[in-house]
Amino acid sequence: MNLTTIAEVKRPASVDDVDGWRDGYSWLAGGTWLFSEPQVAVDTLIDLEGLGWAPLMATEAGLDIAATCRVVELHDFEGQPGWRAVALFRKCIDSFLMSFKIWNAATIGGNVCMSLPAGAMISLTAALEGVCTLWPRNGEPREVSVVDFVTGNHQNVLQKGELLRKIHLPVAALSKRSAMRQVSLTKFGRSAALIIATVGDDGADFLLTVSAATLRPVQLRFATCPSAVELRYALDARLPAEAYFDDVHGSAPYKRHVTQYLAEQIRTELA
Question: How far apart are CA 258 and CA 94, in angstroms?
């Protein structure tokens, strides 16, 4: 779509080249949502392409995913020996409802910053205990976990002009065993529920992440792999009926049912 209100496109070589921030400015990464509908309040795009951030950086501490990393780049990432949870990358990406054009243009940071309930990269990075590095326009960088970054439907903790720089996935989470389930009302439809769990080899530190069925990701952590009764009780306590929401992708009772059903499948697989 042509954005007819745009008067200027800035292409800084450094974020420091962007002086101040005002209404009408917008960061531009992949632009797959930005160019999908009119942006009448935007008159200036600030293109992040020229910053030259490495898409993926693997270290002994884990994996840093730049906000500008393309979906296709994460899909093709093989990971380090022992990083078993990397298998989740492709599973979550395959749950996207997108064309090959989106696949090659959309960014990980863009999906997270959109903060939609069915954001598959939110589900992935939250489940792997991701930590966002945020760059305020005036102030020191700050870190926020992905599960706390998203606060609601299309809502997050970003302040005006603040930029998501990267998401760090710790090696401890990348090394765990994992299981995932996803369901949609149609074969290639938007997720009504996307559930992921990770656990250590000895059954310790079982972490269940519920997304798509709720407005923001919700996590339940257990010292060891829970029993079926323990898991059901914890889900009912943390996610009562009103914690789920209705939309065209499924009713709240339906989402609650499939969340509990899929969570038990995952628990059985990892037990």
Answer: 19
Neighbours of 260 (CB within 10 A): 18
State phi, psi for 167 to the nearest 5 degrees.
-125, 125
Contacts from 224-231 at CB under 8 Å and sequence distance 24+? 225/199, 225/267, 225/270, 225/271, 226/267, 228/264, 228/267, 228/268, 231/263, 231/264, 231/267
The β-bridge relationship of strands 44-47 and 8-10 is parallel
* Of 150, 157, 153, the residue nearest 116 (C-alpha): 153
Distances in Å between the Cα of 271 and the Cα atoms of 4, 98, 177, 183, 199 are 55, 34, 11, 22, 9
pLDDT at site 82: 96
- DSSP three-state, residue 11: coil
> 14: buried, middle or exposed (CB in 10 Å: 19+, 13-18, 0-12)?
exposed
Report, as ranges of residue numbers, the positions in the chain whose pLDDT lies below 50: none
- The three-point CA angle 120-121-124 to 5° equals 90
Tokens of 137: 């326009």
Cβ(258)–Cβ(193) under 8 Å?
Answer: yes
pLDDT confidence of residue 138:
86
Q: What is the CA radius of gyration of the chain?
A: 19
* pLDDT tens sequence across 114-160: 999 999 999 999 999 999 999 998 889 999 999 999 999 999 999 99
Tell me if 207 sits within 8 A of 198, measured CB to CB: yes
